[in-house]
Amino acid sequence: MVTDPLARPHVALPAEPGNGGPALLLLHGTGGDEHDLLGLREVLSPGAAVLSPRGTVLEQGMPRFFRRLREGVFDEDDLSARADELARFVEAASAAHGLADRGLVAVGFSNGANIASALLLRHPGLLRGAALFAAMVPYGAPPAVELSGLPVLVSNGARDPMIPRARTELLEDQLRARGAVVTDVPHPGGHQLDLTALRRTTDWLSALPER
Fold first, then answer.
1. DSSP character for 187?
2. Signal sequence: where (predicted)?
């Protein structure tokens, strides 16, 4: 575990003039790093403030945000511990980089989407919203937290071999049961970021309620 939250490798970019929207918390997939999703800034919210950390777990040399027992089966104890560690980083980095007043919207892909879901469920006041791409169900029995009105977008592929549609619907149902306002943005592809879905996410972000 990281003892100094800000010692985690990360990229922080300030907002450019004219962008008053939320900061983007970019959370990469397995094998990515803090630079992997930076290009989404100009797609989703040009000039937005950005906080992009690296996962601190290695799986065969590939960075991840938490351990898994095998593909599709999470080490839920480690998931919870790493989500708590990431929350401490987000709080410290938000203060250090002047992002607290903007609030953060998590944008996660695959492993990054799954740690974003865990953040929502373990630290429900931390984020202003979340866009989850190629997202799985993080917990067999999710924490009973209050997510009233929290905007969450879920975008999974119809041909994703790792995530049947029923599992996407279970994730969405779990979030809705806790009060989240879930927007389902399916696409016809596989375990990937889809350009049309990203464009719809741009519209979703621009429509988020002001703080």
1. B
2. none
Distance CA 10, CA 18 (A): 24
**For the chain, how many structural domains are there in total?**
1
Q: How many other CB atoms are found less than 10 A from the CB of residue 123?
A: 18
Residues labelled catalytic: 110, 160, 191
Length of the chain: 211
What whole-number distance in Å separates Cα of residue 113 and Cα of residue 93? 20
Model confidence, pTM = 0.96
What is the rounded distance in angstroms from the CA atom of residue 121 to the CA atom of residue 158?
25
For residue range 89-114, what is the model confidence (pLDDT) as tens digits?
A: 999 999 999 998 899 999 999 999 99
19, 48 Cβ separation under 8 angstroms: yes
CB-count exposure of residue 86 (10 Å: 0-12, 13-18, 19+): buried
Note the pLDDT tens digit of each residue in 59-68. 999 999 999 9
Residue 173 structural domain: 5-206
CATH number at residue 145: 3.40.50.1820
The residues, any chain, with a CB within 8 Å of residue 147's CB and separated by 6 or more, are 120, 124, 175, 178, 179, 180
